């Protein structure tokens, strides 16, 4: 069976389903698509840089949110066109998924500096910016000299992700 025939058969089957079934199928297929992209990006980043970057999980979340929003807007407008997808994309763009601070939170808790997490968030210093931190950046967000030295020393000595179960669970809870 040709791929086009299989696709047309799938579309015909979906078009005959009720709205809840259509929504569930659409969201599930986009979740599979997001998971496949996440697996590919995660594998590539591990090969290239030996760690997974936080933006990959953000991309996966964005795909899932976009799929759900598209379903809702499609149901309201009762058509699937460019305007429906643009509306879902605009909403996603104006309400991005939360940025990850798991590594940052873990590093700060390692040194008992949890009270500076708000400084990192205010300065938009996310997990992906950790290797880029400098003394002047930390000073700009209001981190005093002592903690700045600890943070910079930690980043210089340990470029890997601190893998502690406590920090991973805190990251999921936040």
From TrEMBL:
Residues 108-156 form the SAM domain. InterPro entries: SAM, SAM/pointed_sf. It holds the Pfam family SAM_1. This is SAM domain-containing protein.
